[in-house]
Amino acid sequence: MLLLGFGAGLRRSELVALTVGDVAIVAQRGLTVFVARAKSDQQGEGRLIAIHANPKEPDFCPVVAFQRWLAMRAAGPDWAPPAGAAVEPWRQGRPLFCGIGKAGTLKGKPMADLVVARLLKKAALQAGLDPACFSGHLLRRGLLTDAGDRQENLRDVMRQSRHVKVETALGYMADSEIWQNNITAGVLARSVTRRGRERITSGLAPTGFCNCAARHRTLTAGAARTSSRTATGPAPRV
To answer: CATH 3.90.70.10: does it fit domain 2-136?
Structure first.
C-alpha cells in the first residue's frame, strides 16, 4: 500500500478509494493505477498513472508488493461473489485495501483513510525513524520532494501528481529546490583551499573574514613594547 501510494503520489483518500480493478500489471513495465476521482478532478473523469517496476529490489518493487497483497486479499470475506454474480467483475469492484481486525483478519470493507497515517507511522517506527515526522500526506509529498531532488522535469512531475496549477506543484518541491545550484556550495568549497588552510593555521583569516587573532597579537605586541619602554626610560614627570 505504501509503495503504491508513494509511486502514484496519491492522497490517502485516493489510496483507500481504489478498487482491485483500478490497478493492473503491465508486463515488462510495472503498474497502472486508475484514480477515478481526485481533488483536482471534480468531474470524475479519472486519470491513469504509471508506476515502474523495480525488479532489482523485490522488497522495494511495487509490482511484487501488489502481487503479494492480492494473495492476502483473497482471504477477505467479500472475495467470493454472491450467488448469481460473475466472479471476475465482482472481484474487480472490491476495495483494494480493506480494514484489518485486531487478529489480523480482513474485514472486506474499505479501509478508513486515517488508517493510512497510522500504518505509515508504524512503518517509520519499525525503520528506526521518528513517527511524529510522518503523516498520511507524506506519501504524496515525499514523491514530489524526491522528484525535486532529482531535478525531474516539472511537466513530468505534474503528470504524475495530477496537479493543475504550477504554483501548487512547485510548493511541494520548494524545500529541495533551495539546495539546487546554491552558490554557497562553490563559495565555501573554494574558501577551503590549501592557501586558505595555511592562513587559518597561521592565524591570518582568509579574505572576507574578521582577522581577530592577528589583531589580538598586534595589540599584545604593542602593549609589550610600551611596557618595555616604560620600564627602561626615565621616570615620568608628576
So the answer is: no
Extents of the domains making up the chain = 2-136, 138-181, 183-227
pLDDT in tens, 22-72: 999 999 999 999 988 766 656 667 788 889 999 999 999 999 999 999 999
Q: Annotate 161-179 with DSSP letters as a single string.
A: HT-S-HHHHHHHHHHHHTT
| Residue closest to 95 by CA, chosen among 21, 9, 10, 5 | 21
- Radius of gyration of the chain measured on its C-alpha atoms: 31
Q: Are 16 and 116 in contact (CB under 8 A)?
A: yes
* Chain mean position to CA 115: 20
Burial environment of residue 142 by CB neighbours within 10 A (0 to 12, 13 to 18, 19 or more) = middle
Q: Give the model confidence (pLDDT) of 88-112 as tens digits.
A: 999 999 999 998 887 888 988 888 8
**How far is C-alpha 206 from the chain's CA centre?**
38
Cα angle 142, 184, 134; round to 5: 20
Q: 6: which 3 cell numbers?
A: 508513494
Distance CA 109, CA 111 (A): 6
CA dihedral (94, 97, 100, 104) in degrees, to 10, reads 100
CA distance 157 to 179: 18
